[in-house]
Amino acid sequence: MKNQIRLSVATPSKDAFVSITSRIRDAVTELGLKDGLVHLHALHTTCGLTINENADPDVLTDLRTRLEEMVVWNHPQDRHGEGNSAAHLKCSLMGTSLSVPVQNGVLALGTWQGIFLAEFDGPRNRSLIITAIGCD
Amino acid sequence: MKNQIRLSVATPSKDAFVSITSRIRDAVTELGLKDGLVHLHALHTTCGLTINENADPDVLTDLRTRLEEMVVWNHPQDRHGEGNSAAHLKCSLMGTSLSVPVQNGVLALGTWQGIFLAEFDGPRNRSLIITAIGCD
Amino acid sequence: MKNQIRLSVATPSKDAFVSITSRIRDAVTELGLKDGLVHLHALHTTCGLTINENADPDVLTDLRTRLEEMVVWNHPQDRHGEGNSAAHLKCSLMGTSLSVPVQNGVLALGTWQGIFLAEFDGPRNRSLIITAIGCD
What we know:
The structure is a homotrimer of 136-residue chains. The first copy, chain A, has 136 residues and is of the alpha+beta class. Chain A has helices spanning 21-31, 57-70, 85-94; strands at residues 4-10, 16-19, 36-42, 47-53, 97-103, 106-107, 113-119, 125-134. In chain A, strand 5 and strand 6 (106-107) form a beta hairpin.
């Protein structure tokens, strides 16, 4: 049985929180993980992975708006020629990997939790490595 | 032997860093983990988990004060009807899970490190899933 | 075979992103990890670990400059006597641990990804615990 798979996620716009919860559920099934952790790693430096509310999309809009204000796109002191240093900082603030418990084959998320790829310099195709770690 | 247990943490106020270090130590013992990682996952979207100083409580006060200034509670552009978008952003900034090495049954924390549940929209009862991952 | 090793990292200045990618590669080899996760934990409360761009050093300069503006060193409300509460907050914003997939003995990083110890109150000698978690 495989222990790691690669996932491709297309992001729709410059800044976006893309729900990947159902795809991670499918990955857990495909990997045959019963009890343990599923680990997600995004192979990029201008997007992140985060867990937040899966119910009211306004939460995600507020996260995006507040993050854009906290980390302005154009900063007079930026030196990086590509002009996307804001996206690099947001990447480090969110983190590029996370892991979620799996119990009896099921992702152990809270009622309101969803897993999101947080795009900060899209639209792009992003790649993730999903790793299954069993408890024994 | 069990590999995962659930922990309940009561938080005392709206914003608070609640030390859970000794409870995680107990969980490691209960889970019988010798060498590996203990993974903590909070099942919520308005609190986080973080490691920071366990000695001078003023550090935690400063973290709270600075975070409240950085992520103001009332933002004129917020759309989310519950009015707690600030707590959702702080949740993603801290992260909802973390893992700590365990060596010979002992949590491998630095001298000044403690593990905290960072409450951003309390007081509430919060639930955590603790997972033991052995090295072999 | 050992499953955990300790790494010592000297940081050169007060704020610095120190690349530790090649040392983590060496640790993976030393630990004999084939498929799984390598987990890094820094034993401190005023530095962090993060993944970001390994190519243009201007990205790291921009991260440092922007973080210093976002989390000012002297805050009138700070109470902590050591005066380094800013470093404590940056520590929690970056996180003190991270894990990276390993495939066939090779760190599965994206083309532009490097692993950095983010120093916020240096120069110091920092200690990390590196843990190898195999997939089976």
